[in-house]
What we know:
Blueprint: E1 2-3, H1 11-18, H2 32-46, H3 50-71, H4 73-98, H5 110-116, H6 119-124, H7 135-155, H8 157-179, H9 184-212, H10 215-224, H11 246-260, H12 268-281, H13 285-301, H14 304-325, H15 328-342, H16 348-366, H17 380-383, H18 398-429, H19 436-450, H20 460-488, E2 496-497
Antiparallel strand pairs: 1-2
Amino acid sequence: xxxxxxPRAPRDLAGRIGKLPAAKRKGPPEWLPSAIVWGVTALLxxxxxxxxxxxxxxxxxxxxxxYLYFKSPARYLGFMWWVWFLSPEVRRLADWGKGGFTQxxxxxxxxxxxxxxxxxxxxxxYRVLAQRRGLPMLLMLLGISxxxxxxxxxxxxxxxxxxxxxxLYPVLIGFHIMVNAHEYPKYRKVLLDTFIWGxxxxxxxxxxxxxxxxxxxxxxxxxxQMASQGDPVPFGxxxxxxxxxxxxxxxxxxxxxxxxxAADQRIKWIxxxxxxxxxxxxxxxxxxxxxxxxxxxxxxxxxxxxxxxILIGAVxxxxxxxxxxxxxxxxDRLGTRLQTMTNLSDDNSYAARNQFYATFMETAFTDVTxxxxxxxxxxxxxxxxxxxxxxxxxxxxxxxxxxxVLGWPGAxxxxxxxxxxxxxxxxxxxxxxxxKFAQACLSLALSMVGILIFANTFVSTGGSLxxxxxxxxxxxxHHAKLVRRRNAFHFKPVGSSR
Length: 498
């Protein structure tokens, strides 16, 4: 009797396919390290042990991140986002516990250290850069490397290295997701859980911050001289919730509100309602516009059934928010801000941006070699003798930041990599119509690109959201291919003959 069988898969392919079903491993629960970090942090805050918290939090966060990175790479990514969400508030509570504002705090480095651990993925999987799917990453890394070398020579190693981190870690986050495509369903669940619950926590705290203005937040606003965030009094602040300022918070809230339409968590409508109110009270118009772009794109890409669900969801979200949005002080603040969007002639911010584009565009696009990292943004403090912002310390245009900092060679490589990545993500999205998370990621990524004119969404929080979204789509497509191959190579014998 001869049985007819399907040939075995090549060893390397079989190895990748074998990774698809996650094997259960013995050991502590995956949620335990995160619970320990936040539990001990809460105890130190309640005990007002500010000094212990200042030194202990970065150590705890780093150790927990390292453990999770090797034990559960997906949960590591969720923990990383929680550190970004909450560490600024932890820093303020530590200062409050110590009884005074401190100009610098070790807690500030915790999110960066936790995120840079993603660099281990690049070291472990550098061969992926030689593959077709790694080409965009390789081009962006080459562009970043060029700008770093120019920056070291022109601004010094400290300023250049600080700026390098802000440009590099968003790309590393994306690469980490891409090479773990075999665990894409787990990453999808972790990220949705993280952003929905994060929206709930930050949205609720943001509303409290607007109505009450906690003492530690007020102390931080006064000490850091954050005049752009409004007044440190109830009803006077531009909500920044648990984050450092209203800009990053608004981008994270925008992402959370985009993912609400793709989530299945029962808490999502409460999170969406509170998050929507805090998002509005941040008064960040570029993020408002970005969210509208994301919603429109989701409607365009969705099926008719999904369009109805999104529209119903938007109606529910607005209905949940109306009771507080029409409350006196809230309505006044939002009304004043909305008027500036319809009456641009009286908008000082709009006029200043127009003037900046008119006077600086030629400089940005004719600087062939580029100024390198450390030439713009907060990194200029490290290149300044007195620690003040440099000439281009206030630089909020991503469109001009790229050519001015990266120069023509760096910008060509970086933008080429990003362009290839965007094209692949858009193409992949057509085969992922049933994946609501992938469709939400595409909407979020394109909205981030759309608001480049107002902010540099290639770096820091905006860059992390952009590349997390784009590489999640690539991972979803790669995972679907692995599943099809696994099914193709796991047929039983189909017949026999005498």
